[in-house]
């Protein structure tokens, strides 16, 4: 209970699992990550994030597929955004 996890999910993808948090707090966490990334001032790297919420009856696989689609949408956007 109350354990958050972060790990590398694929080549250049990372997955952060945050336990039982309101949507507002999740968005605040994502924004803090975005701001820290921008502070690093990488020249050839972009940050794209997708956010998903587990709901009863949803499989982990479906959750990850949904978030992956959001990341893809964010990558295709000209802006640095969080989906």
UniProtKB/TrEMBL annotation:
<protein>
    <recommendedName>
        <fullName>GGDEF domain-containing protein</fullName>
    </recommendedName>
</protein>
<dbReference type="GO" id="GO:1902201">
    <property type="term" value="P:negative regulation of bacterial-type flagellum-dependent cell motility"/>
</dbReference>
<dbReference type="InterPro" id="IPR050469">
    <property type="entry name" value="Diguanylate_Cyclase"/>
</dbReference>
<dbReference type="InterPro" id="IPR029787">
    <property type="entry name" value="Nucleotide_cyclase"/>
</dbReference>
<dbReference type="InterPro" id="IPR000160">
    <property type="entry name" value="GGDEF_dom"/>
</dbReference>
<feature type="domain" description="GGDEF">
    <location>
        <begin position="1"/>
        <end position="83"/>
    </location>
</feature>
<dbReference type="GO" id="GO:0043709">
    <property type="term" value="P:cell adhesion involved in single-species biofilm formation"/>
</dbReference>
<dbReference type="GO" id="GO:0052621">
    <property type="term" value="F:diguanylate cyclase activity"/>
</dbReference>
<dbReference type="Pfam" id="PF00990">
    <property type="entry name" value="GGDEF"/>
</dbReference>
<dbReference type="InterPro" id="IPR043128">
    <property type="entry name" value="Rev_trsase/Diguanyl_cyclase"/>
</dbReference>
<dbReference type="GO" id="GO:0005886">
    <property type="term" value="C:plasma membrane"/>
</dbReference>
